[in-house]
Amino acid sequence: MLQDEVRFCRGVGPARAELLGRLGIRTRGDLLLHIPRTYLDRRGISRICDLVPGSESVVSASVSSVRETRTRNGRRMLVAVLTDGTGRLEAAFLNAGYLRKALFPGRSLLAAGRVELRAGLSMFHPELHFPAAEDVEMLEKGSILPVYPLTSGLSQGVLRSVVSAALEDCREGLDPVLPPEVLRREGFPERWEAYRAIHEPAGPEEPPAARRILALEELLLYQMALRRIRAGSPGLGAHPIPAGVEDRFRSSLPFVLTPSQVTCLRDVLADMARRTPMRRLLQGDVGSGKTVVAAGACLSCISAGLQCAVLAPTEVLAEQHAVTFRRLLGGLGARIGMLTGGSPPARRRELLSGLQSGGVDLLVGTHAILEPEVGFRSLALLIVDEQHKFGVEQREALLAGRDPRPHLLVMSATPIPRTLAMTFYGDLDTSRIVEMPPGRGVTETRRVSGDQGRQEAMGYLLERLDRGERAYVVYPLREASEKQDLRDAATARESLARGPAGRHGVGLLTGAMTAAAKLEAATAFASGSISTLVSTTVVEVGLDVPEATVMIVAHADRFGLSQLHQLRGRIGRGGRDARCYLVAPAGISAEARARLDVLVSSTDGFAIAEKDLALRGPGDFMGTRQHGIPEFRAADLSKDLDLVAEAGRLALTQDGAVARNFETEIRWRFGDRMIPIA
Ligand code: ADP
Ligand code: MG
């Protein structure tokens, strides 16, 4: 039914199937989830004589003439004069050679855009629709027509007809997903009606209501898929770990735990004392002391004669964790090993045998520790740092098939907006560290531009270097022009090294360097043999250098807000006041400036994250595209907080009973990426 391949659907053959594939449509269900971008509705069409300047309007008109002109600064402009028998409207397009063929006198079209009053009424770059003759007739009769996202070679007409056939063909065969009372609440007697309403609405109020139903289904099924992964080895118990180490751990520390750290540590120890495996998310800003809580959990585990593992997203971070865990736990007798892709073979063999024999209590490493040859004698606790860098599958690969099942503690420094936390970590319990350890300085953030701004930032940097402090200079890295960006960072390093900062040592750290070179740069910076580190975003997840008090972010407008917040968390960790300069070109838009000013005025990571999500959308926010977390088709994670919450509640009640029934639905929607490895 829904999972049927699209090339076997009515009206679709191999050629169209391929075109549809470009739109991500592979199954009949995908066709039904191809949600219209907008709708044409005759009731929404204005007569030209009724247009009000400043309003967003749609007109139905025909082209009466077309001319080409140039703007004052020499850009080519295409102007079409549109008439509808009541008046005259100009539609203007910059550099729009591609429209020349489409806009010929006599052509009927719909134009949607903002009405402006120039020499006469006009629209600048209106959205154009060229309805087929029968569309015009349909509109005349009062139909509301869907407008779908297209790809070249497919027309609205073709999409409408294949979607319509798909709708008809599954009229009888749609298994229920949502409880009937939820459908009724949103105004639909059955599931199929919601799909009908999104594609063939009877009134303008139907699509928004239908979208809510489709979104809720999608979120619910995703929640159930996550839960099914968790149930991958059902019934497996964990090692219950007696929670007796808290006092010993706390008295071994050179500082007093913050109140949140105490609460979080107790949450974790209590979870691990149970027979059901812990699944907990530990959230807290960079530097809030999550690692210390994790170390307490490890000590508990090790004291019970069991092993633990810490999974870090980068080699630099793994190295740093190894140092931290040795510092925190070494004195208490813990034997700690580190394994990364770069570990020499002899060292690796030794480690692996130590893990087998129980000679290693705690293994810190990158995804290299996930390989099958890495066999633990008694792995009881897995700690994953910076969770969002890993896919659900990777995390689960280390857990699946182990009996007893290890406890899982996920640490995240990214303040995650509530919708995303509930969607992606809905299957985890949450603990949050809400305050910073005492004795941290204040970090001030300034947005600057132009030569003057750069000079101010450099002056400040030199001043702090002269006091023996350290600075980060960060460059963005975009996939599109990675080479150029790397060259920018390298060039910046060279010119800094030639200038007055040079005598304090200037290093370079980028993702493109070898692991060994990265480690060397990080170590030199940590030890102070270089005082300025020019880097791309790798510092985001890594370095903990208390002497660092200055950060200059070049092209700050190219970073996400949360990313900038993370970066800024790298400075001011040692108690001294710090300053972060966001350098952006003078010409950026007022909007881009306002965006950066969010950081200047706020240090609340969660507030920043919510803003970031609203501005960039969930895909970019999570970096999900790389990680196989599905993009939602109906749900909008920047807005649908109520639906996400409801999906979580529904998933709890529907869990075991209906899961089998949903198997195929989950599979065609989310694909095999959602299926656990073991
Ligand atoms: P996170 O993992 O959340 O980024 P860490 O656990 O690495 O934070 O802690 C950051 C720094 O603060 C470390 O140098 C750590 O030793 C120190 N620290 C952690 N907790 C406290 C505390 N309660 N009091 C003082 N310093 C602390
Ligand atoms: Mg950390």
**How widely separated are the two ends?**
28 Å
Show unreliable segments: 624-628, 674-678
Strand order of the largest sheet: 12-13-11-14-15-10-16
How would you state the average pLDDT, rounded?
86
Total helical elements:
23
Spatial extent as radius of gyration: 29 Å
Report the strand count.
22
Structural class: alpha/beta
Please state the second-level CATH architecture of the largest domain: 3-Layer(aba) Sandwich
Count of domains:
4
β-sheet strand percentage: 15-25%
Look up the CATH topology of the largest domain.
Answer: Rossmann fold
Biggest sheet statistics: 7 strands, parallel
- What would CATH call the class of the largest domain? Alpha Beta
| Bound chemical compounds | adenosine-5'-diphosphate, magnesium ion
* Fraction of residues in helix: 40-55%
User: Globular, elongated, flat, extended or rod-shaped: what is the shape?
Assistant: globular
CATH homology superfamily of the largest domain: P-loop containing nucleotide triphosphate hydrolases
Written overview of the protein:
The chain folds into 4 domains: 49-135, Nucleic acid-binding proteins (OB fold (Dihydrolipoamide Acetyltransferase, E2P)), CATH 2.40.50.140; 180-234 and 639-669, no CATH class; 246-433, Rossmann fold (3-Layer(aba) Sandwich); 443-622, Rossmann fold (3-Layer(aba) Sandwich). The protein is 40% helix and 19% strand. It has a 7-stranded parallel β-sheet, sandwiched between helices. α6 crosses α7 and α7 packs across α23. The two termini are 28 Å apart. 42% of the residues are buried. Residues 624-628 and 674-678 have low confidence and may be disordered. Bound molecules: adenosine-5'-diphosphate and magnesium ion. Residues 290-291 line the site of magnesium ion.
